[in-house]
Amino acid sequence: MEWSKIYNPKQMNSFQFVALTGIIMSALAHVLLHLWGKEVESFNYLYLCWGVLFIFGTVQNLRHDPSDDDHHHHHHH
Fold this sequence. Notes:
Keywords: Membrane, Transmembrane, Transmembrane helix. By secondary structure, the protein is mainly alpha-helical. It has helices at about 5, 15-35, 45-65.
């Protein structure tokens, strides 16, 4: 298991990267709206959707792993 794929942007796939960007954008918008005194309930659903996408991306990334045996030094191609 390459756990760095979950937190290292260089090893994330496109699903994870998009989800992460979405979460950051949503959080920024959330903070701005909060500062303006606007409470938006739907943000919780946004985070949920991004979270699901991120988990989906992580599962894909951990499963499809061409470099899985990098650390074992026996390359079977």
